[in-house]
Write a structure and sequence with these properties.
By secondary structure, this protein is of the alpha/beta class. It contains 25 helices and 16 strands. It folds into 4 domains: about 5-55, no CATH class; about 70-230, Substrate Binding Domain Of Dnak, Chain:A, Domain 2 (Up-down Bundle); about 240-390, Rossmann fold (3-Layer(aba) Sandwich); about 400-620, 3-Layer(aba) Sandwich (Rossmann fold). It has a 6-stranded parallel β-sheet. The model is unreliable at about 635-640 (pLDDT under 50). Bound molecules: Broken Fe4S4 cluster (MSK).
Length: about 650
């Protein structure tokens, strides 16, 4: 299997072949053959009588020691994955709320309320009495109201959903009782000897995921905007070529924006720039990986070095002085590679430490000091860089990011026109066939970036506006799809006309993984705007994670389905060993919320399913077929 379609990644891998430490691809190859029982989700390790496994080729009616059947085992494994993903996103949200609380009380040195307008809007939504309060005391109340969603309901952002969807949630018992409460209950429910009914277990998974999407993730996004500033369209660059041969390179990696925001600010300070010059560097270059990087990109335009599978490659360029990591998607393998170079790896979260790796704990009250300390350590490493080992590929690509529900209004409607009407009208007329959210990770078991690019190319050619977040957005950024001019070479005629008229790229970057909540909100606005049905499930929209990897992606997939969205998810979550569990997720859910999964592995077939789904929704709404339907990705090659 080809490891990557990213030319920069390929160059680094080729140069490192044979003499560099192992990468994720080497370790993945060494895992073959993988355990089929584990892969199909039919190995149970929940109690100490096991592991128990069900033979997929054996007789029907097989049971584990306790009597759990294949459906119970697969459903319990699935629910635990959803709960872990929801916990990761939501704990991120909790930390942001905590930072906002400290900032409001003046206890978080260097942090301030960056968007008081958004703060006031959120306060209103949460039912917080602003009563002429200054931003800080209001922020304190808002932070506390958000933290209150962890132990108990209600989750007020769920009121953003269309009424039809809220009724479905109530009828099916899908309203979360609180973010933490659902996660804890999921762990209890899947403990040995508790819930055995696979449907009941899977519905718990949907409820946990809704607590993530409309709770933990959504409040993480909203409070990040308040604290670090709401994004606006911004130009930047992507790929490993953003590393600089003559500057100190600091790579921020993980998911949380708080410390990286401070590191980026510190790296601009004259005193530290002078310190770098004294050590022979021309400057200090901050760039990043995964979603920490995207948070900095969206708000400040810092370049993105790569996505999940690029993390080890960035160190293999031999040009990184320091990589600072927070939480999630940080490979333990980084430590081995850093040790082969002059690179210092620094962990910063008490939740995520690595043996033998420098740990500088992030404390909001000392954020500026910590950031300075980190930047100085990076500069100190610069003289140790071995020039003969530096191998930075020259690939970079321009991009435009920074779209939000608030600013996409004006971009789609022309300056100052605050409405989704032009988008709805474009869909209604058929100039746009529909909207697709293509999101999610990389996965070493499939060719790096290939699924994201193939699927997105196909959708664009068929006049589907593509919205992205996370590593999928970075994959498409590296390929040039996030440039407004990309529409000329790649988009179908209808989408091209819209991009040219409004000046937007055919692929809209809406942020990090928690910012998938922006997509939920955008779909609510489309329904509210009118003319496209009463519910999200009525819309000609679909979602996909064509290179899914993390448990967070499983949770995101579930909250998309539980919000009424047809969702292509590949590689599939580990449920294929149970026909009943698969059927429930790929068709049973449709009767409950209107959404369902497809586990199609081929990205082009997945795109075809998404297009067929949009066409069916158009017919159901009484809309004309897409205006220009004949162009395919093959007929519209990418330019540039
Ligand atoms: S970083 S969760 S690999 S998208 Fe958010 Fe990328 Fe997936 Fe991590």
């Amino acid at each position: 299997m080809r490891r990557t379609v990213d030319r920069a990644a390929e160059k680094v891998l080729d140069a490192a072949a044979g003499h560099a430490p192992a990468t994720v691809w080497d370790r993945s190859d060494a895992m073959e053959p993988r355990c089929g029982f584990g892969d199909l989700g039919i190995c149970c390790t929940i109690c100490l009588q096991g592991p128990c496994r069900i033979d997929p080729f054996g007789p029907p009616g097989q049971k584990g020691c306790c009597g759990a059947d294949v459906d119970t085992i697969a459903a319990r494994n699935f629910l635990r994955a959803v709960a872990a993903g929801a916990a990761a996103h939501s704990d991120h949200g909790r930390d942001i709320a905590g930072t906002l609380l400290h900032a409001a009380k003046g206890e978080a040195g260097g942090f301030r309320i960056a968007d008081p307008v958004k703060l006031a809007a959120i306060a209103k939504e949460l039912g917080v009495d602003a009563g002429g309060l200054a931003p800080e005391p209001l922020a304190e109340k808002v932070a506390l109201a958000c933290l209150d969603q962890f132990p108990r309901a209600p989750l007020p952002f769920m009121n953003r959903a269309p009424e039809a969807l809220r009724k479905k949630w109530t009828k099916a018992g899908l309203r979360p009782k609180g973010i933490d409460r659902e996660i804890v209950e999921a762990l209890h429910r899947t403990h040995e000897g508790v819930d055995v009914d696979y449907r009941n277990i899977l519905l718990s998974g949907m409820r946990v995921a809704l607590a993530d999407g409309w709770g933990g993730s959504m409040l993480a996004t909203e409070l990040s905007d308040v604290l670090f500033g709401s994004p606006s369209p911004i130009r930047s660059k992507a790929n490993l070529g953003v590393l600089k041969a003559d500057e100190v390179n600091i790579v921020v990696h993980g998911h949380e924006p708080a410390l990286s925001d401070m590191v980026a600010r510190a790296a601009r300070e004259g005193e530290l720039l002078e310190y770098a010059r004294q050590r022979g560097a021309r400057g200090i270059n901050v760039c990043g990986l995964c979603c920490t990087s995207i948070e900095l990109l969206m708000r400040q335009g810092y370049p993105v070095a790569g996505n999940f599978l690029s993390q080890e490659l960035s160190l293999l360029t031999g040009s990184v002085e320091l990589m600072v990591v927070d939480v999630q998607c940080v490979m333990p393998g980084l430590a081995d590679i850093a040790n082969c170079f002059h690179t210092e790896l620094v962990t910063t979260s008490p939740k995520a430490r690595m043996p033998g790796v420098t740990h500088i704990e992030f404390d909001e009250s000392k954020a500026r000091l910590t950031a300075h300390q980190i930047v100085r350590r990076a500069v100190d490493r610069f003289p140790q860089r071995r020039r003969d080992r530096v191998n930075i590929p020259d690939e970079t690509m321009d991009l435009v990011a920074g779209f939000t529900v608030e600013n996409i209004f004006s971009n789609l409607g022309g300056t100052f026109r605050s409405t989704f009407r032009p988008l709805n009208d474009a869909i209604i007329s058929g100039r746009l066939r529909g909207v697709a959210a293509v999101i999610g990770c990389n996965n070493a078991r499939v060719t790096h970036d290939e699924g994201h690019l193939a699927m997105t190319r196909e959708l664009l050619a068929r006049d589907v506006l593509v919205i992205q977040t996370g590593c999928s957005a970075t994959a498409c950024a590296k390929e040039g799809f996030l440039r407004p001019e990309a529409a000329i070479g790649i988009a179908g005629r209808g989408l091209r006309e819209i991009c040219e008229a409004v000046g937007i790229p055919p692929v809209i970057h809406m942020g990090s993984c928690v910012d998938n909540s922006r997509i939920l909100r955008a779909l609510c606005e489309v329904v509210r705007e009118g003319g496209l049905g009463e519910d999200i499930s009525d819309l000609p929209v679909a979602a996909a994670a064509p290179e899914a990897m993390s448990e967070k992606a499983v949770s995101i997939g579930c909250y998309a389905v539980a919000s009424g969205i047809f969702t292509v998810f590949s590689p599939p979550p580990r449920v294929e060993g149970s026909r009943n569990v698969c059927e429930f997720l790929t068709s049973g859910m449709e009767e409950i919320t209107g959404g369902r999964f497809s586990f199609e592995r081929d990205p082009l077939k997945g795109a075809a399913e998404m297009v067929a789904h949009m066409d069916a929704k158009r017919t159901a709404l009484g809309l004309p077929p897409a205006m220009y339907g004949a162009e395919t990705a093959a007929a519209a090659p990418v330019e540039g």
